[in-house]
Amino acid sequence: MTTSSPAGSPSAGLRERKKAKTRAAIREAAMALFEQQGYGATTVEQIAEAAEVSPSTFFRYFPAKEDVVLTDDWDPLIVDVIRAQPPEVSAADALLAGIRTLIERATPQEWAAEHRRQQLFQATPELRARYVSQLTAAIEMFARVLAERAGRSEPDLASRAVAGAMIGVAMAVFPIEGGFVSVADYERFEEALRVVTREFGGR
User: Fold this and answer.
1) I want to staple 11 with a disulfide (CB 3.0 to 4.6 A). Which of 5, 68, 75, 78 is the partner?
2) Model's pTM, two decimal places?
3) CA gap 90, 88 in Å, rounded
């Protein structure tokens, strides 16, 4: 007889909350150390000690030190909103719905945390280099969810093109080379993506 709890049970919810709390504690400890003594001088062992977890626990939440800074917790929200859009909604409009939901749901505290994260990776050359490489992964992530909405098991040319256009517009609009990405920047991104979709037929 199993003693495990169903995914929707109160104990399952408690486990998820505990995991979220541990992850947040690790990230907060890491960010504080990065700001106090520099990213390069901070070790995973120091972060784990400050967060009162073991190094192995750190790696269960973040595959590498740089992931503490570069992991964008808002991407899963955008993906969930895209996935939830009705089939008749175009790929571009599904992406825009994800961005709009992000803007509407983010609290002042979440914007402040995002500002802090951006300041750190923009000021750290090795993190900025890794950030650029992550753009390819972002295209793949959004292409997969767009393909899924279209009933395809793998991204095709259309889904990759739309996802690539989204990332390209973001690079053109957001102040990647310095400065905080604000609510106004996201609104400019939405406007720019609509311009692109109008120019190329919307779908």
Assistant:
1) 5
2) 0.71
3) 6
